């Protein structure tokens, strides 16, 4: 059985609407968002969907995260606390602003930041907390916002994998923090190849981000550059495709939720499989479905048999892998190497601390299964059958 994936037409929702959007922009003759209308329209539509006062469109999800760090305005050497289970795009902007990433450990049941671990790391140089809604699961954003407010910090939410992920109370991930970021990269729920968006209700944070995304250029003041900035502008072509994709987003997430719910229902019937928070021992722990947008479908094997289950599923044709990352970012080889030229600034003598729960997830307990809006009941049945035949289940 073939499992559609996001590298092929059968695994995407790209079609006539996106083609028409591209033609509309090309025939207009204006491909730059500085003078065009598509990027500004996309910002308004995202703002309406998320209830955000300000939205800034930019060239990539990593650019969006860079803008969020700029909004937090760390001084050189200031610290930003984040998770070691994430793409390097979460951490690179911290280094780009001459700040120091401090890795906090995670909840072993879902890989999202543990607020207690974050609290222990807050110090005099801490400037922000950057949470990641991993695999589409909601991080504990309410607790992290309370911590941020208590200590005068900026809370940034990385929602690259979490389009329409719901927080307790029904708000979308990205709206609990001071800044939320979204990604339109090829592998996300919706795509324009690359693209990013930042969300905020804070006028000053929005001003900083919009300036930085356009070379520090206050266009209302003429050819005048107010501050340091880069060219992170989204093109009109990207924005037009993103707008067409945005119309399909609710259906994409609803489909992923439907088939994920079917799989969880099937797996709950198996001996040795239990909910994330159920008492007692289990071979496989299921993800919490509340609010989940299912970018990937994770399973946790507390006994450390994730590589074995991943190999078993792969042999059955299921798109599964162990660990998600080769190593958590606190164990990446870049630490101790030069950052700019031959200089290690601002990381002289820096070595990230151990994060035992994150390291165990990546090395031993986490399996992720690719998920897609085009999966059918037959795909769900194939995954369930493969899991049911895992020899380590009772």
UniProtKB/TrEMBL annotation:
Family: Belongs to the DegT/DnrJ/EryC1 family.
Active site per UniProt: 188 (proton acceptor)
Higher taxonomy: Bacteria, Bacillati, Actinomycetota, Actinomycetes, Streptosporangiales
Domain of life assignment: Bacteria
The name this protein goes by in its record: Glutamine--scyllo-inositol aminotransferase
One GO term (biological process): polysaccharide biosynthetic process
Pfam family, one: DegT_DnrJ_EryC1
Cofactor: pyridoxal 5'-phosphate
InterPro entries reported for this sequence: DegT/StrS_aminotransferase (IPR000653), PyrdxlP-dep_Trfase (IPR015424), PyrdxlP-dep_Trfase_major (IPR015421), PyrdxlP-dep_Trfase_small (IPR015422)
Organism of derivation: Nonomuraea aridisoli
Keyword NAD: no
Sites of N6-(pyridoxal phosphate)lysine modification: 188
GO molecular function, a single term: pyridoxal phosphate binding
Keywords: Aminotransferase, Pyridoxal phosphate, Transferase
This protein's record includes keyword Transferase: yes
Entry-linked SUPFAM superfamilies: PLP-dependent transferases
